[in-house]
Every structure is written in structure tokens, then in C-alpha cells.
Amino acid sequence: MRQHSLFIFIICFSQLLFSQEFRSTTAVNAQSQNISLDLSSVSNLNGASITIRNSSGSWITLPQISNPATPWPYNIEAIRKQLPPTNSDQEFAIATWQFVVKHTFHYCSAGTVTTASKNSLTDPALILNSFGFGCCDQKDRILAWIWQQFGYQTRLAAMDFHTVAEIFYNNAWHMFDPDHQVYYFLSDGVTVAAIADILANPNIVVQQADANGLDGAGWSAAVMAQLYAQNAPTLRYFTSGYLTHQGLSVALHPNESLTIFSDNAVGAGQHYDPGDPFTFRSVGTGEFDWDLSFGDIGWRNWAYSSTNVDSILDATGAKYLQNLTSTPGEIVYKESSMFPVLALSVSAQMIANTNGSLWAAFSADGVNWSSPAFVAPTTNVSGFQAAIDFTNLASGQYTYFIKIYLVGNVQVHRLRISPVVQTAKWIFPSLIAGSINQLTYSDSSKAAQARRLQVTVKVSLASPQIQGLQAESLVPENSTFSLARDYGAANLVDGNPDSLAYPGNTHIDYVIHLGGPHIVSGASIDWGNFGSDPRYVKSWTLMGRNGTQDWQTLASGGFPGASTMNISANSVASDLRIVAEGVNNVGIYDVRVFGNDVPPIPSSNLTVFSNIPEDPIYSVAAGYTAANLIDGNPASLAYPSNNHLDYQVSLGTPTHLSAATLTWGIFGSNDIYMSNWMLLGRNGSDQAWSILAQGGYPNSTASTIAIDAIATDLRIMATSSQNSIGIYELQLFAIPATMPVLTNVTAIGNVLEFPGLRGYGIAGNLVDGDDNSAAFPEGPSVDYTLDPGQTRYIDSLHVVWGQFGTVPAYVNSWQIFGLPPGPGATWELVARGGFPNAGQTNVPVKKQYRKMRIAAESLLNAIGIYEVQLLGQ
Fold first, then answer.
1. pLDDT score, position 14
2. Cβ atoms of residues 577 and 549 within 8 Å
3. Are 235 and 163 in contact (CB under 8 A)?
4. What are the Cα distances from residue 593, in Å, to 124, 497, 589, 734?
């Protein structure tokens, strides 16, 4: 046993926040701009993301970050930049064929599935940028589209089993097959054959196979030759009408951002035909975040339509969207991009007064609307209090409409529309860890248009960023210079580096609520110019507390000397507090906090008794017994009717304690009662008691202390020199030495299962407690959802791979996802890895989730998983 101080914070001023994240931001003000990204201090790029934020007052069309030589191939100019110089039509045809082969893989087929229909895709630009895969006819369309844009005559040659593309040059047709990654020469060894030549002599296919008798896609050339011969009578040509271009692009509204992820961040993917095995890891993801403030003078310009609503100034100086009539007010927004939606949430900052509420509806066409749904309170969206999830309705859509209904006396300050979308895997640029990378920003808006954008590259390194933060200002916010300018406290934690928290004062004092106890491992404060210009912040203090304890100073300093200040930590806290003094009025743009949840020990796991006899009249008869100490009710009193108390709590098993909250009530806040107190612990009944924490008069209704000790029993002792004393509640937070395996967990397969083919079983085998029974869908990928039945604290996952994890020919990569509680929550990536190189893997989680998910894939063979255990409470 050993006693530890409540908070340990180490200040570290550097771009790299130790053990948390790498973050680099570059300002962009030109249509095309080179960006130098120094990743010298980063060794692993897993979980990287790139965000483009439009801070200007105008739309920005097709903004992108790419490697200098590989812009997104949305139009022919971008593709032209990626083609090598050629000296003949045939060299050009081969170069374009190679481009399509490089940027696509075979899967039938690219397209979306919505609630209304299935949509097989025929738009070449969308196939390239949003999917990166397709059937033979879809990949042929890309090639034919490129040829046509360069002025060549093209056609598709379709048979019942296969479709290929042909280009006309040198007075003849020539066939190129991007799907099977082949083209064939005539007997002269120079001229590329047409489909008619191949059908006349299918042996060409066999003669030009590789040493193993395979074509470019790994198919048997002999089989392909036979199929050509058999299907020759079904040949038909398409010379027009087979190319469509929907004109969809990417356009960022003012105050909107687009983040592209290196991983599939939500474990989802869109495809038209589920007949072949499909893994979501074959496609990438992006996320739009459109922040709409009704304190913005141009709020009505960004709406598609509005009825019976207006932005009204309240008594504090803040502006809210409000209903003007007795009928619901409405405001409609339209979103559209070339990336299909995978998930969609809408969140709000609002005040719902008596008889006031917020509702929302979804439409794919702006005419036919879903039934309005309640925008419910949530704790998962930092800086926002309410949210709604439209994923089921929006999935697969490229263009859609959101209608917000203001019913009764409700005030809406901000809205955030956040669709997660699908991208082709290679849209994310190639990055090299440990070196300086050169990237290029570009867009398609007019060159003369004014731009103000920020490009932020982020790499998560260790503990996750804590979500669901809420902030309040302890300094009154000036009605004119703060609230009227939309500089409220909520901006401190909304994740938007443009939104400023600024009370209009030389003194700032913000409290950040973490939503419960967390093991805080770090924080990052974006001061902006307030931290880099000595005319502003001259001193600052960071404080913390757990529960209702007194604030403790964690760190402090003078002029920050940097726009971003990073702080490492190892502490348990439920709230942080930032205080600063300025030469002039000061503010903060954003604060990020990193760490893991601390699990409370269920009271059902505890037993308690009093080492001091409880008075039969003033304690037992009054209902003030020891049991009240751990009943979860801070209003029920444990009171032995004595000026000395001594309660002993048994934890049942050795438990790794992280924190404890002792609710004293009036006995801790009035100095006529408690004089001193002590918390002791021991690990085993044969061990001596050790002091974990102690103090004098608490001067607080509650004390929360950080603990780092393994104990089987605790003991709370306190004395008073004047009066009888008691205690209302003890809440313990712990990571037990051995977390129990959660029971009654069910497993559902997210890929097609073919049980019994090799003596293996279905998804249920994953959680049956038998390491010898495998969940095996008879395919190269697995994807299972694990449901513990309710939101639980998940300490870790224990995965039994068996031979699938020890033989390199099997599992090549894996990912773990968690689904947070609350509306609007989508799957979030928890952990990832490559070849396990072990029969078992333990994956730390340390967060509350309502469901978990494990996915893995192989490049060569069918794979399975023998067992997955969720450990937690």
C-alpha cells in the first residue's frame, strides 16, 4: 500500500503531446498550396486523419489534400496530371488502362443500398473517388470515360459472362480489360487485339498467360479462353448511353470541415451487390462537420428554406433561433457530396423552456419527409446538449435534406450536421512516418476567390480523446463583446478551432465537465494568438477536482509563448478548470482532454459494517445504519450517533482502486463537526492496515481522492471534538486486478456465414466459453458484433485466434470498434493491428460502450476466431 498525491501533471511545451496525439495545422489562403508536414517524431501512422476547415465566408469547391503527383481523379485534368508522357495512341491507351487498374479493385459491385432502393453505380468519377472498386462493366466505364475525355471513340463489348472496353485508333478497335488486368497482342506482337480477334482465336488468351497459366487478375487463362468461346454468340456493343456523370462534387460551406481518415473509422461500407464477400476495410471514410450558428449574421443564407423562425437576441446578448408563431417553426438544410453517407447525426446547443422541444425529419428529395423525431438530450457530443441519429434513413444517400422543427418555447443557438461518408481507400494520401512529407492543397473554386482555410493533420498515439465535454464560464460573459459575438463558453470544447470562448474580460475562468471520473492522461489548450502574442495572456493556472472536492492546482505558468500548449498528466478527475489573466481581454479557442473512463464499483459487490456499536435509538431505529454508506444514495445517512465513526468495507476480491469519493454532507462543511478523517486499506485479512489518505476538517461536503492501491478491504475513520458525526456515501472507482468476464454476451455475424462446411460454427461460438469452437464464416474476412445487453464498462477484450493468429497466411489485420451510449453515436475505432503473431490477444479498452465489434481479414485464406471475452463491469 502506498499513498499518492491527487494529481500529477507534467508540463511539456511541444508539438507532440507525449503519449496522446501528433497535431499539425497549416493556414491555407490560395487555390493551390504546398504543405510541408514534419512527421519526424511520429513512428506509427495508424489512426491518422486530415481535416480541411473552411473558415471563409464563401463555398469552397472540391478542396482536397493529396500527394503532389496524385490529386483526386474527379475530372480529366486531375487524371491528366497522373499519366506519363506518351508518344503514340497505343502508349496512351496502355497508360490509361494502367491508371484504372492501379486505382480500382474487383468487387461486384459499386453502388449504394438505401431504404428505398439499390443503386448500381454508372458514374465513373464516383466509382473512382467514392468506392475504388467495381464490376467489369463499371471499371470499363471509367476507362471509356477517360478515353472519351481525350477525344477518342470508345465502346463497351458485353457478353453474358464479361464486359470489356475498346478504343479506336490506327483505323482499328483495340480491347483493354481493366477488371482482369489484361490486354492481348495479335501475332505480330505489336498490335493490341480487338474483342473480335479474341473471339475468333481464344487461344490468344492462353498463349499470353503468365508462367502459372493465369491472367493479370489471377484467373485461369484456359478457363477465360473457354468462356470467351462459349459466350461469343452473346456479344453486343454499346457505343453510347453507357456513361453518366451526376455532377456530384465536394463543396464546403462556410464553417464546414471535411476530415479524411487513414482507416475506416466507423466499420461500414456501401456496395450494391452482397453476393461476394465484402470487407469495410476495403474502403475509407470521411466526416463532414457543418457548424451552424444562429449568432452568425448570415445564418439565413445557409438554409435551404425557413418558415416562422428568426434569430432573436435574448436578455444576455446571445442570439437564438426561435419560433415566431403558435405553430412549429421550420428550417431546412441541404447537404450533397460525391461521397455516399454511412452514418448521419445532427446535434444542437439549445434551451428548451416549458412546453418547448426540438424535432427533426429527413428527406432524400426535399419533398417526401420522414416522421418528425425528437432531438433528445445526449452526453456524447462535446459542447452540444442534444442529438438525433438519422443513419438508418441517410445511409447510401449522396444528397439529402434535414428539416428542424421548433415547437413551443425552445431556443436553438447552434446546430451541427455531421455525416460520416465513404471514400475510396486511396483518397487518403500516402504518408511516411519518421520523415518530412510534402503534400498539396488544391480546390476548384475561382482563383481570385478569398480563402481562409486550415489543414490539420492528426495522429492518435495513445489514450483516446474524451468526448462529451461541457464547459461553463465562472466569469460573467459580456453581453456585447462575448455573447452577442457568439463567443460563449461552449466554444471551448466544441472541437472547432474557429469558435472562440471569450468572456470579454482580462480574467477568464472556465470549468470543463468531463461527464464523470476519468483517468486523465493529458490536455491540449489552443490559445491561438492569445498565447503567442505577449500582449494577451500573462499567466495561467490549470486546476482539477474529482466530484465535489476542492479545486487543486495542477499546473501554472506565465506567458504561454505558443498558440497551443500541451500538458501530460496521470490523474483521476471529473472536472478541469482553466484560469488566466491577461494584459488585455483574453480567450481560448479549443481544449482537448485525453484519458480513459474510471469504472465505479457496483454497490452489489461491496459489504459494510460498523466497527463502532450503532446507537439503537439514534442510529438503528432512525434508519442510519452502515448499509447506507454504499447504497448508491447520497441522501441516506450512515450515522452511529457517536463523535467517532469507523466503517469497514469489504471489496470481495483484490481490487485496483483508482479513486474514492466520500460524501460528508453537513458533517464536512460545518466546522462544528468533523475534525479529522482517515482512509485505510489492506490487501488480505491477514495484512496490516495502511493509510491511503487522511486529512483534517474537510471544509467541503465531499472529498474525492486519487488512489493507486490494490485492496480487499477499506476502512473509513473520522473523529469530532464537539459533536456526533456521520457520512452519507462512499463511491469507489477501480480497475480490479482481474476484471470479471461479462456474461450473457451475444454475438452477431456481420458477414455471410456458411456454417458446417469444415466442422466450424456460427457467430454464437465466439462467446460460448469454449476455446475449441470457432466462429468461422468460410471467407477471408470476419466481422462480429458483441452485445452485453446494456451499456457496460469494458476494460479489455480477450481474443482467442488459435492458428488463425499464429500462421501468417491467415489473419493479416484486425480492428476493434466500440459503440458509445446515447443518440447519434456511431462506431468508433478502439484498436487495430496486423498479423497477431500469437494465439491470443488482449486489447485494452477502458471505456463505457453499449456494444463492441471485432473484424479481421486475410489476404490469402478463409479465417475465423475461436473466442472473444469482454472483461469489465
1. 32
2. no
3. no
4. 42, 15, 14, 21
> Do 61 and 446 contact (CB within 8 A), yes or no?
no
Q: Which long-range contacts (CB under 8 A, 24 or more apart) does 165-168 make?
A: 165/140, 165/141, 166/194, 166/195, 167/89, 167/93
Whether the CB-CB separation of 856 and 824 falls below 8 Å is answered with no
Q: Which of 280, 429, 432 is nearest to 815 (CA)?
A: 280
The separation between the first and the last C-alpha atoms of the chain, rounded to the nearest angstrom, is 24
* Cα 787 to Cα 793: distance, rounded to the nearest angstrom: 12
Residue 82 burial (CB count, 10 A): 14
Average pLDDT, the chain: 91
- The alpha carbon torsion through 157, 158, 162, 164 (nearest 10 deg) reads 20
Q: What is the DSSP letter of 464?
A: P
H or E stretch covering 567: strand 564-582
* CB-based contact 536:543 (threshold 8 Å): no
697: left (phi over 0), alpha (psi -120 to 50) or beta: beta
Beta-bridge mates of residue 36: 438
CA 526 remoteness from chain centre: 21
Category of 509 on φ-ψ map: left (φ > 0), alpha (ψ -120 to 50) or beta: beta
Query: Does a cis peptide bond (omega within 30 degrees of 0) precede residue 641?
Result: no
Cβ-contact 54, 47 below 8 angstroms: no
How many whole angstroms from its chain centre is CA 193?
Answer: 49
Confidence class for position 667, pLDDT limits 50, 70, 90: very high
Tell me the residue type at 661: T
Distance of CA 675 to CAs 533, 645, 669, 716, Å? 48, 12, 11, 14
Instruction: Say if residues 400 and 333 touch (Cβ distance below 8 Å).
Output: no
- 24 versus 245: the higher-pLDDT residue is 24
Residue 274: count other Cβ atoms within 10 Å of its Cβ.
12
Shortest CA distance to 497 belongs to which of 466, 523, 528?
A: 528
- Report the candidate in 121, 333, 334, 337 with the shortest Cα–Cα distance to residue 248: 337
Cell of 467: 468526448
Contacts for 446 with CB less than 8 Å, ≥ 6 apart: 31
**Length of the chain measured in residues:** 873
Using CA atoms, how far residue 394 sits from 57, 103, 288, 346, 361, in Å, is: 28, 27, 14, 12, 11
Within 10 angstroms of residue 562's Cβ, the number of other Cβ atoms is 15
- Residue with C-alpha cell 477517360? 146
pLDDT tens per residue, range 392-441: 999 999 999 999 999 999 999 999 999 999 999 989 999 999 999 999 99
- Residues 55, 59, 62, 68: is their CA dihedral positive or negative? negative
pLDDT tens readout for residues 15-48: 344 447 899 999 999 999 999 999 999 988 888 9
Which of 106-110, 298-302, 541-545, 597-601 has the lowest average pLDDT? 597-601
Residues 518 and 575: their CA atoms lie apart, in Å, by: 9
- CB burial string 415-441: b at 16+ within 10 A, e below: bbbbbbbbbbbbbbbebebeeebebbb
pLDDT band, very low/low/confident/very high, at 464 (cuts 50, 70, 90): confident
Amino acid at 252: L
User: Which cell numbers hold the place of 38?
Assistant: 514534419
HEC readout, 131-144: HCEECHHHHHHHHH
**Could you give the 3-state DSSP secondary structure of residue 253?**
coil
Encode pLDDT of 39-71 as tens digits: 999 988 888 999 999 999 999 999 999 999 999
Tell me how far apart the alpha carbons of residues 209 and 219 are, in angstroms, rounded to a whole number. 10
Q: Identify the CA nearest to 514 among candidates 565, 472, 576.
A: 576
CA distance 805 to 533: 54
